[in-house]
Design goal:
Length: 140
């Protein structure tokens, strides 16, 4: 099984950025542990702060991977273009957020992506990514 994790804007600063909200761990260190927890799965990772680059990566991966885990960061709440890209591809996408977006500012309560994703996992910190991968193992 081949899974791609895509992180959107500002998620390159995990571990440094607002640790009270997003925790103290950088994504690269988390990724190493994640790989060890799912040894049978090929997990690739892509991060971009640029909306169009995220769309390009969805197009590239969206016909060959078994699953995509997408944390589009703030684009979640603004991007019709990323939602259209998720709709356009064949690979199922699970939306993920580290924080509990519904407990935060009202503008974070709306997601353009949830209706076009297989499901959405949020509020469990970095464990949200583990749970998303687990969902692909149980529902292919
Ligand atoms: C986030 C939540 C978004 O509202 C925010 O803009 C992010 C991170 C999360 O993982 O909790 O950048 O997607």
């Amino acid at each position: 099984m081949k899974i791609l994790i895509i992180n959107g804007p500002n998620l390159n600063l995990l571990g440094v950025r607002e640790p009270g909200v997003y925790g103290n761990e950088g994504f690269e260190s988390y990724l190493a542990k994640l790989g060890a927890r799912f040894p049978g799965i090929g997990i690739d990772y892509y991060q971009s702060n640029v909306e169009g680059e995220i769309i390009n990566r969805l197009h590239e991966a969206g016909f060959s991977y078994d699953g995509i885990v997408l944390n589009a960061g703030a684009y979640t709440h603004t991007s019709i273009a990323i939602a259209d890209a998720v709709k356009a591809i064949r690979t199922p996408v699970v939306e993920v957020h580290i924080s509990n977006v519904t407990a935060r500012e009202p503008f974070r309560h709306e997601s353009y992506l949830t209706p076009v994703c297989r499901g959405c996992i949020f509020g469990f910190g970095l464990l949200s990514y583990d749970l998303a991968i687990q969902s692909f193992l149980t529902q292919q």
